[in-house]
Amino acid sequence: MNTTLVTGGTGTLGRHVTELLRAAGHEVRVLSRSTQPYAVDLREGGAGLDRALAGVGTVVHCASSPRGGDEQAAHNLIGAARRAGAGHLVYISIVGVDRVPLGYYRTKLAVERLIEDSGLGWTVLRTTQFHDLLLRLFQGVGKLPVMPLPAGVSDQPVEVTEVAARLAALAAGAPSGRVTDMGGPEVRTLPDLARAYLRAAGLRRPVVGVPLAGAAYRGFRAGGHLTPGRAVGRGTFEDFLARRFTA
User: Residue 73: which of 92, 54, 46, 51 has the closest Cα?
Assistant: First the structure.
């Protein structure tokens, strides 16, 4: 088996991908900004990135930041992968990056296009939002006396370990291009999901829908970030909350 490099290999998704690949017998290198021996800031690139890619056949690109720099990071990673002779670049993206005009989504779409034009063998998987993202959202707004949420928006959260299993399987296979999207098992309104969080956390808060402005909000209201026809996930938000709050 060839060596696989997982960028963002200590993050929410990357650590599960790393564990699964290693359990399957793959040699895996973890690249992040602070994890030795491959501590590299992808936005800067340089000799450290070339050293991390030396002898690597497959790259699973999980590193991402809504604070910016993803396009430069992808440019540097693609260049290093070419120089190393890597044969397969796997990228995790988001359902709706081509339908919801949110800045972060536009960046993810731009990275997809860089990868498609890279000359490398590539695979791109788009998924809906992880349960963890909704939890962080609800924990944040749950500190207020009233929980304000975007009015008229639904979500389709998916279990991160299920996404990791799909991504690890894709990484172990041949380049597949854009594969079918992966969504969570249920499309539910944000208030419904918020009330599930409140029950699990033992909190009482009124949940209030707040109308917002802008094209991105209209895209979310229209369900551009959902894929009900690909509701292949199995773990529900309540399953996730039960594990989290029991822990």
Answer: 46
| Cα torsion angle, 246, 155, 90, 165, sign | positive
- Residue 1 is predicted with a pLDDT of 57
- For the entire predicted model, the pTM comes to 0.95
Encoded tokens for 100: 């919801």
In the chain, the domains with their CATH numbers are 3-246 (3.40.50.720)
Cis bond leading into 66, ω under 30°? no
Q: How far apart are CA 8 and CA 31, in angstroms?
A: 6
| 185 dihedral zone (left: phi>0; alpha: psi -120 to 50; beta) | alpha
In a 3-state reduction of DSSP, which class is residue 114?
A: helix
Q: Do residues 146 and 206 touch, judged by C-beta distance below 8 A? A: yes
Residue reference for tokens 């802008």: 214
Half-sphere exposure of 39 (CA within 13 A, CB side): 5
pLDDT digits (tens, 9 = 90+) for 215-228: 999 999 999 999 99
Instruction: Confirm if 15 and 9 have CB atoms less than 8 A apart.
Output: yes
Helix, strand, or coil here: 220?
Answer: helix
What's the rounded Cα separation, in Å, for the pair 128 and 138? 17
Q: How far apart are CA 65 and CA 43, in angstroms?
A: 11
Structure tokens at 29: 């290198």
Q: How far apart are the first and last CA of the chain?
A: 36
DSSP string, 3-72: EEEEETTTSTTHHHHHHHHHHTT-EEEEEBSS-TTSB--TTT-SHHHHHHHTTEEEEEE----TTS-HHH
In this prediction, the residues of the chain whose per-residue pLDDT falls under 50 are none
